[in-house]
Amino acid sequence: MTTSDLATILVVEDEISIRRLLGNILELSGFRVLEADSAAAALKTARLRCPDLVLLDLGLPDDDGSRVLAELREWNAIPVIVLSARSEENEKVRLLEMGADDFVTKPFGSSELIARIKAALRRSASPDNVPALSVGPLKIDLVARQVTLQGEAVVLARKEFGLLALLARHRGKVVTHSTLLRELWGPVHANDVHYVRILIQKLRGKIEPDPGAPSLILTELGVGYRLAQ
Length: 229
Known about the structure:
The protein is of the alpha/beta class. It has helices at about 15-30, 40-50, 65-75, 90-100, 110-125, 160-170, 175-185, 195-205; strands spanning about 10, 30-35, 55, 80-85, 100-105, 130-135, 140, 145-150, 150-155, 175, 215-220, 225. The chain folds into two domains: about 10-125, Response regulator (Rossmann fold, 3-Layer(aba) Sandwich), CATH 3.40.50; about 130-225, Orthogonal Bundle (Arc Repressor Mutant, subunit A). About 40% of the residues lie in helices and about 20% in strands. The longest helix is centred in the middle third of the chain and has 16 residues, at about 110-125. It is globular, with a radius of gyration of 18 Å.
C-alpha cells in the first residue's frame, strides 16, 4: 500500500460540520474514511475495522480524546494524529509522550494536514530499524555511524550523532525535549532544555545547507524537533 492508495482513515470528531469537512478533504486526497462521534464509537470502530490511521479530536462528548489514545496504545501501534483547538505546549508534549504521532492545531490547512497524514503512514509502513536513510543532501548510516552532506563526510561528536540518530529513528515525528534529554543526558537533566538547544545549534551548523534557515532539523516551538521527511 502506498501512503494514500486505499489507506483508511478513522476520523474521530463530534462536530458534524468538521467531520464532513475532514471526510471531503481525505476522500479528495484518495483516502477511504471511517467516522466516529464519540470515544466509545472510536474504540469500537478501531477494533472492528482496523483503520490505517486515526485523526483524533480531544473534546468528545463521552470522554477526553486522550483516553482514546491511551486505550489504543494498550493494544495497537496505529498512527494517531491529534487534531485539536488546544494549543498549549504542555498539552502537546503530554499527548506526544502518550504515543500520539503528531499534533495538528485547529484551524488547520488542508495541505499541511494531508502532508502530515502521508508522513505518518510512510513511517508506519517502514521497518522500525532503518539502517540508512537520506534527507535531501544528507545521508545517515546508523550502523556505520557515518554522515555525509552532498557526498562529503561530516564529522560529528558522540552526542551530536546520538541526537541525529534519535531524530532519524523517528523521522518525520516530533521528538520532545524531555525525550531527547532523557535519552542523551539521563533523567537527572530532565529540565535542562538549553542542553538540547545548544546541541541542535551545533548539529545544524554541521549538516544544514543554511543553518540560519534550517530545512533538515525542524523546530516544533516549545515541544521539540523533527527530522524532515
